[in-house]
Design brief:
Blueprint lengths: L2 H27 L1 H10 L1 E2 L17 E3 L5 E3 L7 H4 L5 H10 L7 E2 L11
Antiparallel strand pairs: 1-4, 2-3
Helix pairs in contact: 1-4
The protein binds iron/sulfur cluster (SF4) (2 copies).
One iron/sulfur cluster binds next to loops.
């Protein structure tokens, strides 16, 4: 593994690490932004499970009888989970984990919230 690959992995890991407090802080201090962005979101969850292993695999994540990722804490999830993804930055984060199986949610069909960061 060369230096640039290592640096890229470190950068991606730091980005994913920052994603958790970013979502927490936005949910806490900018609920209007989150609400407005969610109102513009389209699609549905495809249960790929990528958002349950952004930094490490969540301890509540398991495979159900159909082999799909499921949540042992579904009814008690915090806003970071229940509102994921709430903007294109979240999509970009989960794409670092599962670039070949897109999230079922998206923005941009109405021309807004497409700013990948
Ligand atoms: S990344 Fe998207 S499609 Fe996959 S489990 Fe999370 S919300 Fe659902
Ligand atoms: S609490 Fe549930 S929804 Fe949230 S990361 Fe863990 S398994 Fe996924």
């Amino acid at each position: 593994m060369n230096v640039s690959t290592i640096m890229l992995r470190i950068r991606n890991k730091l980005r994913l690490l920052w994603g958790t407090p970013r979502r927490f802080l936005l949910n806490l201090f900018r609920p209007g932004y989150v609400r407005e962005s969610l109102a513009q979101r389209s699609g549905e969850c495809l249960r790929c499970g990528a958002c349950c292993r952004l930094v490490v695999k969540c301890i509540f994540c398991f495979k159900d009888k159909a082999g799909l990722p499921a949540c042992r804490s579904y009814n008690f999830r915090n806003a970071n989970c229940s509102k994921f993804p709430f903007d294109s930055r979240d999509i970009a984060d989960r794409d670092l984990i599962a670039p070949h199986s897109p999230c079922g949610y998206s923005w941009g069909r109405k021309g807004k919230k497409t700013n990948k960061s």
